[in-house]
Design a protein that fits this description.
The chain is α+β, with helices and mostly antiparallel strands and about 170 residues long. The protein has a domain of about 100 residues: 3-Layer(aba) Sandwich (Aminopeptidase). Helices cover about 40% and strands about 25% of the residues. α3 crosses α5. The longest helix is centred in the N-terminal third of the chain and has 20 residues.
Amino acid sequence: MVDDLDWRNRRGEERNEPWHLPEREMNMIRKAEKKDLARIAEIQIFNYRLYFYPIFQSDEYYFLELQVPSLMKSYEKQLDSLYVYDDGVVKGFIKIEGTYIARLFVEPVLQNASIGSQLLEYAVKEHKADHLWVLEKNEKAIRFYKRHGFFATGERKPEDDTEEYLLLLRRK
């Protein structure tokens, strides 16, 4: 694992400077295009199977219904609200509807590399994003959002067609 000092040094930055998100990193976030839809769908499917299948355990949904072509088609009509992290390869995406964060996913093998943080920071800074719903059992996501200033409001709602609940998180 590379620590922040080694990472900065490899980028030619001074070792004694505090870490901050370089402006050039924000340039890796752009509006999604039709050519990105396969990667967006893959990233969401990988995350759903890895993190949500163990909770919901629906073979029919996660392995039959949830497919790249159908997800691509549904997202094609939503390109105006999709943004991707692209450093030559799309590695994550965020769906922003007004000030609501509807989706945020990063390629699972690339998580903990600040991609999600950059996407979230972009949504807050550029779109004034201030709320989202998160699955109550998704403790990893809840911790991530708390680190970025989002907190549970106490409001819950049932996840459609399940016994699970979603929590409303707001940025303070």
